Amino acid sequence: MNSSKSSYTGLVLEYDSGIVPPPYSHVFRLAMDWTKGSLSVALDLHYTEREELSEEEILDEGFTPNDDYSHKGALDSVWIKPLQQLYDKSRWTNKDIEEGGITVSPIEKGKDEGVKIPANQEEWQLMAQDLIQAIYETVKKEAPLKVNYRLVDNEQTTDCSVTVHFSNRQVIFEKNGTSRTINWEYAIQLMKLVFTPDYHYEMAKEEAGKKRGAYIDCGDGYWHELGKGVVNIDPSFDAVGKIKAGFEDLVSD
To answer: What is the domain partition of the chain in residue ranges?
Structure first.
């Protein structure tokens, strides 16, 4: 079936992490319906194979003994168009996903039109992660992601921040007390870069640096100096330099 925007009014995403070990291994089903123009969602997320782990082992990995989550409710309708655009541009494959992956089922006139396996797995998995984060923000389970940045140059200090609101796909950039909305895709790419390098927490401080340099706080209250406490993992990819360039572009606009 070759669905178009006008013929389907919902999507069901089902994901299995596959060969990922516990406590990380999980499955989820995310059903979305925009029949009436608004977006209703139903999420069922379940972590798997944890019975072989002790509670201490689960806690040591940053989880809790019960991270399963179910929710039914509404999401901001701003998510409908990106979902439709991703679905309409996707190509489908018969490739087996036994080792983990995501499937997409279009809903037309209330009926499931069959399971499709997207060739662009990463795009769909990222979309699903963004939608789940949007749910968590909407129900106040988690706060929006806020990254703080300080640039000290020639005795001038510039403080700024980027706050990503998944709930309504808005990103707020704030500098010296003034704020503006910035491009969603630009911000998401910048956030991916932010979490690419290696952060040495033994060098982190609770206050931003005052000496010449660039400093970042990824939302946990710890400040790291780029190039010293934050270093590239892959020598062929200068993530640290790209982070600096990304924030400097925002600061200079």
So the answer is: 10-138, 145-252
